[in-house]
Design a protein that fits this description.
Number of strands: 11
Shape: elongated
Radius of gyration: 20 Å
Largest sheet: 5 strands, mixed
Number of helices: 7
Structural class: alpha+beta
Strand content: 15-25%
Order of helices and strands: HEEHEEEEEEEHHHHHEE
Strand order of the largest sheet: 2-9-5-4-3
Distance between the termini: 34 Å
Length: 275
DNA sequence: ACGAGCGCCTGTCGGC
DNA sequence: TGCCGACAGGCGCTCG
């Protein structure tokens, strides 16, 4: 489900509070349940429960698509993968059928990791580098510069879309925002990364950042049967718009498969790479 | 180094 | 109505 903007939206909600949920900062975990063992990568579920109880939540952070609950003695890494979500619920609310991990907090609420497809994962670690150490730069940070981006594009001979989806190349891009950014930059998803000119690279750099910021501003996207409050889905230019006219040129949006992922683009604005 | 195929899972939707 | 395939916001693995 979530890409960088959706995870960032959840981070801000947990950290700052909002809607009907309070900030989690300084709340204490007083109980824990693991409903689906494989969700917890490490440590083993029983040890996870032992260790996480009595921990205080010091901060809520994010790295790429990883949500990080900074606890007094550990870091709780959460990756929502395709269908995961974090809900804050009152204690008397019954557990839904897709609840996988639940943390009981003081103040009478619980933090629930809900995940129909069971792809999501959590780790309780002191040292996080083993899991997130190889991630590429944060696209909205200062270390992500036009110059370094262009250089690194040219260090690879890869289709641009799968390269942007590679979390060790750039952290946080997923299928939606990649399609949107490539359309914005007028670059075909199959163009080889080392055929991208400096001018195209600069445009793509700008588009990645503006599209992600637009997603965050709209609290992310809510698609399929999962509604989580964001409304960026109303602003998609190409994603899931096969057959609809391109908002720039009017030509029908096409869908192809690239790297096993549905890929949406405008054949007029994003012409095929020269063979 | 790169890309394709597959596994992990459950749910929805469209076509017949 | 039921069945069946396509498809879904991700990623790790193996194999050429």
């Amino acid at each position: 489900m979530p890409e960088l903007p959706e995870v960032e939206t959840i981070r801000r909600l947990l950290r700052n509070g909002g809607l009907n949920s309070p900030s989690l900062i300084n709340m204490k975990i007083i109980g824990a349940e693991v409903l689906w063992d494989r969700t917890v990568v490490e440590p083993a579920a029983s040890i996870f429960i032992d260790k996480v109880i009595n921990q205080t939540i010091k901060d809520v952070d994010r790295r790429g698509k990883f949500l990080i609950l900074v606890l007094a003695d550990y870091n709780l890494l959460i990756h929502l993968r395709m269908s995961g979500d974090i809900l804050i619920e009152s204690l008397d609310e019954p557990l839904g059928k897709h609840h996988r991990v639940v943390l009981i907090l003081d103040e009478g609420i619980k933090l629930a990791f809900v995940d129909p497809r069971k792809f999501g994962r959590v780790w309780l670690l002191t040292e996080t580098s083993r899991v997130i150490g190889a991630l590429g730069p944060e696209p909205l940070s200062d270390e992500f510069t036009r110059g370094s981006f262009f250089q690194r594009l040219n260090n690879h001979h890869r289709q641009i879309k799968p390269l942007l989806l590679d979390q060790n190349f750039l952290a946080g891009m997923g299928n939606i925002y990649t399609d949107e950014a490539l359309h914005c930059a007028k670059i075909h998803p199959l163009l080889k990364s080392d055929q991208i000119t400096r001018k195209q690279s600069d445009r793509l750099w700008e588009c990645i950042r503006s599209i992600l910021l637009e997603g965050i501003k709209n609290n992310g996207a809510s698609i399929d049967w999962v509604y989580r409050g964001g409304d960026y889905q109303n602003y998609f230019r190409v994603y899931q718009r096969r057959g609809e006219p391109c908002q720039v040129c009017g030509v029908d949006i096409e869908r192809i498969v690239v790297g096993q992922r549905g890929t949406h683009f405008c054949p007029e604005c994003q012409p095929l790479p020269s063979k």
